Amino acid sequence: QLLCEDVNVERFFPVLYPKASQLIVAFDEHVISNNFKFGVIYQKPGQTTEEEVFSNTEESLGFLEFLDFLGERIQLQDFRGFRGGLDVTRGQTGTESVYTNFRGKEIMFHVSTKLPFTEGDSQQLQRKRHIGNDIVAIIFQDENTPFVPDMIASNFLHAYVVIQLTHSTSGDTLYKVHGTNSGDL
Question: What SUPFAM superfamilies does the annotation carry (predicted)?
Protein backbone atom coordinates (compact mmCIF):
# COMPACT_ATOMS: atom_id res chain seq x y z
CA GLN A 1 0.00 0.00 0.00
CA LEU A 2 2.95 2.31 0.42
CA LEU A 3 3.54 2.25 -3.33
CA CYS A 4 0.00 2.47 -4.58
CA GLU A 5 -3.14 3.47 -2.74
CA ASP A 6 -5.32 1.50 -5.18
CA VAL A 7 -3.89 -1.88 -4.20
CA ASN A 8 -5.93 -3.70 -1.60
CA VAL A 9 -3.44 -5.87 0.30
CA GLU A 10 -6.23 -7.66 2.11
CA ARG A 11 -6.69 -9.77 -1.02
CA PHE A 12 -3.13 -11.11 -0.88
CA PHE A 13 -2.13 -14.08 1.23
CA PRO A 14 1.39 -15.34 1.98
CA VAL A 15 2.41 -18.55 0.28
CA LEU A 16 4.62 -20.74 2.38
CA TYR A 17 7.08 -22.62 0.19
CA PRO A 18 10.37 -23.78 1.72
CA LYS A 19 12.35 -23.46 -1.53
CA ALA A 20 11.01 -20.04 -2.51
CA SER A 21 14.21 -18.17 -1.65
CA GLN A 22 16.29 -20.62 -3.71
CA LEU A 23 13.98 -20.17 -6.70
CA ILE A 24 14.18 -16.39 -6.42
CA VAL A 25 17.99 -16.49 -6.28
CA ALA A 26 18.12 -18.86 -9.29
CA PHE A 27 15.80 -16.58 -11.25
CA ASP A 28 17.85 -13.53 -10.28
CA GLU A 29 21.03 -15.16 -11.63
CA HIS A 30 19.53 -15.36 -15.14
CA VAL A 31 20.01 -11.69 -15.87
CA ILE A 32 20.09 -10.78 -19.52
CA SER A 33 23.39 -9.14 -20.32
CA ASN A 34 24.06 -6.40 -22.85
CA ASN A 35 27.82 -6.98 -22.66
CA PHE A 36 29.73 -9.76 -24.40
CA LYS A 37 33.34 -10.75 -24.94
CA PHE A 38 34.68 -13.05 -27.62
CA GLY A 39 38.15 -14.33 -28.34
CA VAL A 40 39.68 -13.83 -31.77
CA ILE A 41 42.63 -16.04 -32.69
CA TYR A 42 44.73 -15.66 -35.82
CA GLN A 43 45.75 -19.09 -37.15
CA LYS A 44 48.40 -18.97 -39.87
CA PRO A 45 48.62 -21.71 -42.51
CA GLY A 46 50.13 -24.89 -41.08
CA GLN A 47 49.72 -23.93 -37.42
CA THR A 48 48.19 -26.80 -35.45
CA THR A 49 49.11 -26.12 -31.81
CA GLU A 50 48.00 -23.70 -29.13
CA GLU A 51 51.57 -22.48 -28.72
CA GLU A 52 51.83 -21.60 -32.42
CA VAL A 53 48.58 -19.63 -32.67
CA PHE A 54 49.14 -17.74 -29.41
CA SER A 55 52.67 -16.80 -30.52
CA ASN A 56 51.58 -14.89 -33.63
CA THR A 57 52.70 -11.27 -33.51
CA GLU A 58 52.17 -10.28 -37.14
CA GLU A 59 48.77 -9.85 -38.78
CA SER A 60 47.96 -10.47 -42.44
CA LEU A 61 46.08 -7.86 -44.46
CA GLY A 62 43.17 -10.31 -44.63
CA PHE A 63 43.08 -10.61 -40.83
CA LEU A 64 43.21 -6.82 -40.40
CA GLU A 65 40.35 -6.45 -42.88
CA PHE A 66 38.36 -9.03 -40.92
CA LEU A 67 38.98 -7.15 -37.65
CA ASP A 68 37.63 -4.00 -39.30
CA PHE A 69 34.57 -6.02 -40.34
CA LEU A 70 34.03 -7.15 -36.72
CA GLY A 71 34.18 -3.69 -35.19
CA GLU A 72 36.18 -0.58 -34.53
CA ARG A 73 39.82 -0.70 -33.52
CA ILE A 74 39.94 1.27 -30.29
CA GLN A 75 42.68 2.55 -28.02
CA LEU A 76 42.33 0.89 -24.62
CA GLN A 77 43.75 3.82 -22.64
CA ASP A 78 40.78 5.59 -20.97
CA PHE A 79 38.25 3.64 -23.08
CA ARG A 80 34.74 4.31 -21.71
CA GLY A 81 32.68 1.42 -23.14
CA PHE A 82 32.47 -2.21 -22.03
CA ARG A 83 36.06 -3.29 -21.55
CA GLY A 84 35.58 -7.07 -21.28
CA GLY A 85 38.17 -7.37 -18.52
CA LEU A 86 40.86 -5.49 -20.45
CA ASP A 87 42.99 -2.90 -18.63
CA VAL A 88 42.07 0.63 -19.71
CA THR A 89 44.29 2.50 -17.24
CA ARG A 90 47.77 0.92 -17.01
CA GLY A 91 48.14 -0.73 -20.43
CA GLN A 92 48.75 -4.20 -19.01
CA THR A 93 46.55 -5.87 -21.64
CA GLY A 94 47.92 -4.04 -24.67
CA THR A 95 47.21 -0.69 -26.26
CA GLU A 96 44.35 -1.48 -28.62
CA SER A 97 41.52 -3.91 -29.20
CA VAL A 98 38.39 -4.31 -31.32
CA TYR A 99 35.00 -3.20 -30.00
CA THR A 100 31.51 -2.81 -31.40
CA ASN A 101 28.06 -1.81 -30.26
CA PHE A 102 25.67 -4.05 -32.19
CA ARG A 103 21.97 -3.32 -31.71
CA GLY A 104 22.54 -2.01 -28.20
CA LYS A 105 24.83 -4.90 -27.22
CA GLU A 106 28.43 -3.98 -26.38
CA ILE A 107 31.02 -6.49 -27.61
CA MET A 108 34.72 -6.46 -26.76
CA PHE A 109 36.93 -8.79 -28.76
CA HIS A 110 40.00 -10.30 -27.11
CA VAL A 111 42.26 -10.37 -30.17
CA SER A 112 45.24 -12.70 -29.72
CA THR A 113 47.65 -10.50 -31.68
CA LYS A 114 46.62 -7.35 -29.81
CA LEU A 115 47.18 -8.83 -26.35
CA PRO A 116 50.73 -8.57 -24.94
CA PHE A 117 53.33 -11.00 -26.30
CA THR A 118 55.77 -12.27 -23.68
CA GLU A 119 59.18 -13.27 -25.04
CA GLY A 120 60.25 -16.67 -23.70
CA ASP A 121 56.73 -17.74 -22.66
CA SER A 122 55.78 -20.57 -25.04
CA GLN A 123 52.25 -20.71 -23.61
CA GLN A 124 51.66 -16.94 -23.89
CA LEU A 125 49.70 -16.90 -20.63
CA GLN A 126 48.94 -13.16 -20.93
CA ARG A 127 47.01 -13.88 -24.11
CA LYS A 128 45.50 -17.14 -22.96
CA ARG A 129 44.33 -15.60 -19.69
CA HIS A 130 41.72 -13.59 -21.58
CA ILE A 131 40.87 -15.77 -24.57
CA GLY A 132 40.89 -18.96 -22.48
CA ASN A 133 38.22 -17.46 -20.21
CA ASP A 134 35.88 -16.55 -23.06
CA ILE A 135 33.09 -18.94 -23.98
CA VAL A 136 33.27 -18.35 -27.73
CA ALA A 137 36.37 -17.88 -29.87
CA ILE A 138 36.59 -16.88 -33.50
CA ILE A 139 39.44 -18.60 -35.34
CA PHE A 140 40.56 -16.64 -38.41
CA GLN A 141 42.44 -18.50 -41.15
CA ASP A 142 43.98 -16.97 -44.29
CA GLU A 143 43.56 -20.35 -45.98
CA ASN A 144 42.22 -23.80 -45.19
CA THR A 145 44.10 -25.08 -42.13
CA PRO A 146 42.99 -27.93 -39.82
CA PHE A 147 41.44 -26.74 -36.55
CA VAL A 148 40.23 -28.99 -33.75
CA PRO A 149 38.77 -27.50 -30.56
CA ASP A 150 40.97 -29.49 -28.19
CA MET A 151 44.11 -27.87 -29.61
CA ILE A 152 43.31 -25.05 -27.13
CA ALA A 153 43.18 -26.20 -23.51
CA SER A 154 40.45 -24.31 -21.66
CA ASN A 155 37.69 -25.02 -19.17
CA PHE A 156 35.60 -22.14 -20.51
CA LEU A 157 35.93 -22.12 -24.32
CA HIS A 158 33.03 -24.17 -25.65
CA ALA A 159 32.15 -22.81 -29.08
CA TYR A 160 34.39 -21.93 -31.99
CA VAL A 161 33.55 -20.07 -35.18
CA VAL A 162 36.18 -20.81 -37.82
CA ILE A 163 36.45 -18.11 -40.48
CA GLN A 164 38.36 -18.87 -43.68
CA LEU A 165 39.28 -16.07 -46.04
CA THR A 166 38.33 -16.63 -49.67
CA HIS A 167 37.66 -14.46 -52.69
CA SER A 168 34.98 -14.35 -55.36
CA THR A 169 35.87 -14.64 -59.04
CA SER A 170 35.70 -10.85 -59.22
CA GLY A 171 38.17 -10.52 -56.33
CA ASP A 172 35.71 -9.54 -53.59
CA THR A 173 36.54 -10.71 -50.07
CA LEU A 174 34.35 -13.55 -48.88
CA TYR A 175 34.42 -15.68 -45.74
CA LYS A 176 33.66 -19.37 -45.26
CA VAL A 177 32.13 -19.88 -41.82
CA HIS A 178 32.29 -23.14 -39.88
CA GLY A 179 31.09 -23.82 -36.35
CA THR A 180 32.40 -26.40 -33.94
CA ASN A 181 32.38 -27.01 -30.20
CA SER A 182 34.51 -28.51 -27.49
CA GLY A 183 32.27 -31.55 -27.12
CA ASP A 184 30.87 -30.31 -23.80
CA LEU A 185 27.81 -28.74 -25.43
Answer: Rap/Ran-GAP
